[in-house]
């Protein structure tokens, strides 16, 4: 049976959070939004504003109000990241963008530009990762429908998370 993408599609940021922390995904989805205060986000915004000035017309393309592509070019989608610290979630988010575009008839490959390290990573959508993305979308829906947030997990990056105080309130 065909996967009913319309019933499962989510914002790119939620797809990313699934790989960062499922509790964060749930909190964000429930309107507990603290990300604007995060240093990493402010830094990221600055980098996006200052990068690739010549490609102004291709920058920050919002599709269906759900996915925001840093740069959409003729053959590829480029994402600009500060560093490769969250490599896995960065890669999966870009794969989701490629999957989303593919669903609306736009075929692209992907490149992630890690600005600080001055390196790039190529990302390609395969049949195998299409299936995996669908599995993740089903799981995301289950998490978003939970009545309470998933339990806290101690990640090395919790202290840098915008929900840190919320999650560790009794310890700070
Ligand atoms: S502080 Fe840690 S457990 Fe809490 S939402 Fe952030 S990453 Fe998840």
UniProtKB/TrEMBL annotation:
Keywords assigned by UniProt, alphabetized: Antiviral defense, Exonuclease, Hydrolase, Iron, Iron-sulfur, Manganese, Metal-binding, Nuclease
UniProt-listed InterPro entries: CRISPR-assoc_prot_Cas4, Dna2/Cas4_DUF83, PDDEXK-like_dom_sf
CC cofactor note: Mg(2+) or Mn(2+) required for ssDNA cleavage activity.
Presence of keyword Metal-binding: yes
Domain DUF83, residue spans: 11-168
Cited Gene3D superfamilies: 3.90.320.10
EC numbers for this chain: 3.1.12.1
Domain of life: Bacteria
Named cofactor requirement(s): iron-sulfur cluster; Mg(2+); Mn(2+)
Biological process per Gene Ontology, one example term: defense response to virus
A GO MF label: exonuclease activity
NCBIfam families according to UniProt: cas4
Function of the molecule: CRISPR (clustered regularly interspaced short palindromic repeat) is an adaptive immune system that provides protection against mobile genetic elements (viruses, transposable elements and conjugative plasmids). CRISPR clusters contain sequences complementary to antecedent mobile elements and target invading nucleic acids. CRISPR clusters are transcribed and processed into CRISPR RNA (crRNA).
Family: Belongs to the CRISPR-associated exonuclease Cas4 family.
Name used for this protein in its record: CRISPR-associated exonuclease Cas4
Lineage, highest ranks first: Bacteria, Bacillati, Bacillota, Clostridia, Eubacteriales
């Amino acid at each position: 049976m065909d996967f009913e993408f319309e019933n499962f599609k989510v914002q790119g940021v939620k797809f990313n959070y699934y790989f960062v922390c499922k509790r964060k995904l749930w909190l964000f989805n429930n309107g507990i939004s603290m990300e604007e205060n995060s240093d990493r986000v402010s830094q990221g915004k600055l980098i996006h504003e200052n990068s690739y000035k010549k490609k102004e017309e291709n920058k920050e393309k919002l599709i269906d109000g759900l996915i925001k592509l840093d740069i959409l070019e003729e053959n590829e989608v480029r994402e600009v990241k500060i560093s490769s610290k969250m490599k896995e979630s960065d890669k999966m988010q870009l794969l989701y963008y490629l999957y989303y575009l593919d669903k609306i008839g736009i075929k692209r490959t992907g490149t992630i530009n890690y600005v600080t390290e001055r390196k790039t990573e190529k990302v390609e959508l395969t049949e195998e990762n299409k299936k995996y993305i669908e599995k993740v979308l089903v799981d995301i829906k289950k998490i978003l429908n939970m009545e309470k947030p998933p339990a806290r997990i101690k990640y090395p990056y919790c202290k840098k998370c915008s929900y840190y105080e919320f999650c560790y309130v009794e310890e700070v």
